[in-house]
Design a protein that fits this description.
Rossmann fold, single chain, 197 residues
Length: 197
């Protein structure tokens, strides 16, 4: 499911990393018209970036050291400011995994760029969260097996019946199956399985 589009950016902040003061000022004015506070910086602004809601970076002159996180792992929407379209610089921008691009020749398109960048960033973060949760649950498979074996032994049932009881616990407790298994193993009440049947 796609995240809801963010359409109002009033009260938000943006850092603009660009060597040209005129570009920084022009973009700050455009952002101010949308209710955002834009702060221009060059060459570094790590402290300001960590407090910002959006980051604009000049693709032609930007470099890895200016961005205070691993490439492709931005916690905020990143927007590449495009000027010369050189293949090497576009390749760098793609490695950074910018959420959107804005041509410096079309600063009037900043609103749609903010909408796209916000949506792509939300999608990227959602994908990362789902991947982390899948990895966490996969790492608990041994807990799931132990819980099934425990139920089989205590109740003299086969693995399918034990798994069914474990699924019932997960539904009652509104937990992922692996977390329900961990809860079962942590419980010392001898009557625990009876209430899930």
């Amino acid at each position: 499911m796609s995240p809801a589009l963010e359409l109002n950016f009033s009260g938000r902040t943006a850092v603009i990393l660009h060597p040209a003061e005129s570009v920084r000022a022009q973009l700050s004015d455009r952002l101010a018209a949308l209710g955002l506070t834009g702060a221009g910086h060059w060459p570094d602004a790590a402290e300001a970036i960590l407090k910002a809601d959006f980051l604009f970076v000049d693709v032609d002159t930007g470099h890895d050291e200016q961005i205070p996180w691993e490439a492709g792992c931005s916690p905020i929407p990143m927007i590449g400011l495009i000027r010369s379209e050189s293949p090497g610089r576009l390749s760098w921008a793609l490695r950074q995994n910018f959420d959107a691009f804005l041509s410096q020749a079309a600063p009037g398109l900043v609103y749609s760029t903010l909408v796209v960048a916000s949506a792509k960033c939300a999608e990227r973060r959602g994908n990362a969260e789902r991947a982390a949760e899948a990895a966490r649950r996969a790492g608990q498979r041994h807990v799931l097996i132990r819980a099934v074996l425990l139920l089989m032994q205590e109740e003299a049932i086969d693995e399918m019946a034990a798994l069914k009881r474990l699924r019932a616990l997960a539904m009652v407790e509104r937990l992922p199956l692996e977390d329900a298994a961990a809860k079962l193993l942590d419980t010392t009440d001898g009557k625990r399985a009876g209430k899930w049947s």
